[in-house]
Amino acid sequence: MSFQDLEAGTRSPAPNRFTGGRQQRPSSRGDPSQEVAAGIFRISTAVNSFFRLVNSIGTPKDTLELRDKLQKTRLQISELVKNTSAKLKEASEADLHGSASQIKKIADAKLAKDFQSVLKEFQKAQRLAAEREITYTPVVTKEIPTSYNAPELDTESLRISQQQALLLQSRRQEVVFLDNEITFNEAIIEEREQGIREIEDQIRDVNGMFKDLALMVNHQGNIVDDISSNLDNSHAATTQATVQLRKAAKTQRSNSSLTCLLILIFGIVLLIVIIVVLV
Amino acid sequence: MAIIFALVARGTVVLSEFSATSTNASSISKQILEKLPGNDSDSHMSYSQDRYIFHVKRTDGLTVLCMADETAGRNIPFAFLDDIHQRFVKTYGRAIHSAQAYSMNDEFSRVLSQQMEFYSNDPNADRMSRIKGEMSQVRNVMIENIDKVLDRGERLELLVDKTENMQGNTFRFRKQARRYRTIMWWRNVKLTIALILVLALVVYIAMAFVCHGPSLPSCFK
Fold first, then answer.
1. Is the dihedral of CA B189, B190, B195, B197 positive or negative?
2. Which of B142, B146, B175 to mutate to test the interface with A (most CBs of A within 10 A)?
3. Domain B1-163 belongs to what topology?
4. What is the pLDDT confidence band of residue A16, given thresholds at 50, 70 and 90?
5. What is the structure's pLDDT at A154?
6. Is A223 close to B160, i.e. CB distance below 8 A?
7. Residue A5: pLDDT over 70
8. Cα A36 from chain centroid?
9. Is residue A178 assigned to a domain?
10. I need a labelling partner for A11 at 20 to 30 A (CA). Which of A85, A137, A257, B92 fits?
């Protein structure tokens, strides 16, 4: 679309302005701009192709051939960018020095802007390619050993088989060793479990003892309460008895006084009787 | 004693050994050293023979072996082997790799003897055994506590009986005290009445004399 507008813009003013020297002036002034436009178009196409290759990185299509193609495409785009940049500079110099028309200046500015946008896309594609190349490794196909010689192939296969045999043997030894270690650790764990179980039994016994002790202490608490109530009742009864005895003592003291008084009266009466009888 | 024989070797070369009793453990252990599987790889093994078990531990090319009772289990013998290995490496260091047979026996057999004694008899050698011992002590203390509480219960039974008797006695004492007070009161009443009668009689007799007759004729005329 933008290229169509560019071509329309470049072609439409040509026959109107340069009616006098048509053949000489359009060819000398139109070549850099047209070449820049063509270069930008090719760069854009190459960048799209580069993007397709970059999207294949990390998939089963990712092979060494793909990586080589990526590298070639990158170099091709760099070369195109270099050429187009030189032509763009040439066109801008012609615009500055020569008495170019306003429409042409605007067209060249637009070309420069398009060139910058294409460059940005290329840089983005390059950055993405770099990230993916670091993250993933290409799939090594089996076609590569076909380039070897027959004796080298035999030597390689023999070496590989020997390595596999040694690896298998060492793994078997490791398995035996691990089995021994597992047996040993299981025996240790079994013994530890038994010890812990015995401790658990002892703790359970102690728990039962504590419960029995609690029951007995609770029962004896009731007995102590009975003892306390008995003592309180005894104390109260003794206090009341003491009060009664105190009253009895007071009454007895009064009785003694009365008894003395009676004896005194009898004495006086007896004395009077004796006096009367003697007289 | 749980651990009876101990030995330290490099490969099949015996560097030091000690035996608590006279047995054929030395020859049997040599056979075991020759038959150990694996080439200088770290491992733990246990071989049984009659009533004894040979425990073998190999670490960094140094082999430690001990013969123990079946009742000793595995925790204590292997803890013993770990301890002996550390002490041996700490004491002799790099000399282990180039030592002659039995060259450390004079010095290290005493250490073997001490550690055999420690791991066989001291309950602190194993945390599990120590906890079992402590739980046994706790259980014994609880049994004593229960006995004391039972004894206290019996005494409390006697005490409650005695206090009930005392309560009955004090109730009876109170009743008798009240009765005694009543008796004293009545006696006081009787004496008062008697006194009044005697006084009345005396006054009557005196008036009889003064009025010249028992019927008091002159006083009421």
1. positive
2. B142
3. Beta-Lactamase (3.30.450)
4. very low
5. 65
6. yes
7. no
8. 53
9. yes
10. A85
